[in-house]
Amino acid sequence: MPKQKWLEIRILLPETLQEEAGIFLTGWSGRGVVLEDAAEIDSSPRLAGIRAYLPAGEFTADIRQDLFTYLDRLAALGYRIGELQQQIIEEEDWERAWQVHFKARRLVGRFVIRPPWEEYNSTGPEVVLTIYPGMAFGTGRHPSTWLCLKALEEVTYNWSQHPPRWVLDVGTGTGILGLAAARLGARVLAIDVDPEALAAARENILLNELHDLMRVEDLPLSAIRQQFDLIFANLTAPDLQTLAESLAGRLLPEGQMIISGFLQTDLPEMEERFRAQGLQSVQTHLKDDWAVLVLKRR
User: Fold this and answer.
1) Which of 25, 112, 167, 232 stands the most exposed, by the fewest C-beta atoms within 10 Å?
2) 284 is in an annotated binding site
């Protein structure tokens, strides 16, 4: 039987947009994508490569148009998008193609992300998380993930002097935020309704040997009755607006909430929405066009 031909699509775009574009391309192609480090690309400002794969016969006119419509929308928002490159390749293990590009890296503060196939020699008091990035989301590249980890480090600075706390991670994705909290000693409930996210998070829990501290459930937020010391919600702005009351209702007195996934321009509206639920803003961090808000129950 002849080997199947695959079409490789490669796009250069801003590094901060890479994970978000990866989510789109994963859904568009129905398969994993390859994320290249910006350091490998000779360009300025920092552009990074992203590759998607699909059987050559599936690249119909409609599929092609969906891709170009997405790229045109990014360009209209002011993002620099490089020339789209295409080539036909022989059948290969595309699920592992990105192993060449995903390397161990320090994200922020003590937090280091490494893939399971790469050894990492820790230096100092680091928090090393093993992430299998098969579906390209939740690898820490997106600014909102970076911001949440920065906020977590500050919130948990004195955790070593206190008993482990209960943490809720809403929309966990690959579980990176919940894993970070569990690595610091918290007991974590992570929820998601996406089967791919659930599978990824469960695999990463096992890779990090944190199954005694963290569990993942296929649950909507409305099904949760427990209250928590800390809640993560790295979601979209509309989802945060919709879920604000439910999120606040699951926060213990003196508990804190870390929300992100929204732009800096949405910050005033987000603060107002959660203030109406009895929470006060105690900290804000910004990165690129994104924001994180740390809230506390009054």
Assistant:
1) 112
2) no
Binding site annotation covers 171?
yes
Write phi, then psi, for 109 (nearest 5 degrees): 55, -125
In this predicted model, what pLDDT tens digit does every residue of 73-111 receive, in sequence order? 999 988 889 888 988 877 655 555 556 667 788 888 889
Q: Six-digit token pair at 104?
A: 């161990």
Any binding-site annotation on 93?
A: no
* Rounded CA separation 195/193 (Å): 6
In the predicted model, is pLDDT for residue 244 greater than 70? yes
Output the pLDDT for position 136: 41
Cβ contact 181:206 at 8 Å? no
The answer to whether the annotation marks 145 as part of a ligand binding site is yes
pTM above 0.90, yes or no: no
Instruction: Tell me the domain boundaries of the chain.
Output: 5-100, 138-297
Question: Which of 213, 219, 209, 141 has its CA nearest to residue 178?
Answer: 213
> Residue 59 burial by CB count (10 A; 0-12/13-18/19+): exposed, middle or buried?
middle
Q: In angstroms, rounded to a whole number, what is the distance separating the alpha carbons of residues 132 and 287?
A: 25
CA–CA separation, 214 and 127 (whole Å): 16
CATH of 5-100, one of 3.90.320.10, 3.40.50.720, 3.30.70.560, 3.30.70.120: 3.30.70.120
The answer regarding whether domain 138-297 maps to CATH 3.40.640.10 reads no
pLDDT in tens, 249-273: 999 998 999 999 998 999 999 999 9
Q: Could you give the CA distance from residue 23 to residue 5 in angstroms, rounded to a whole number?
A: 24
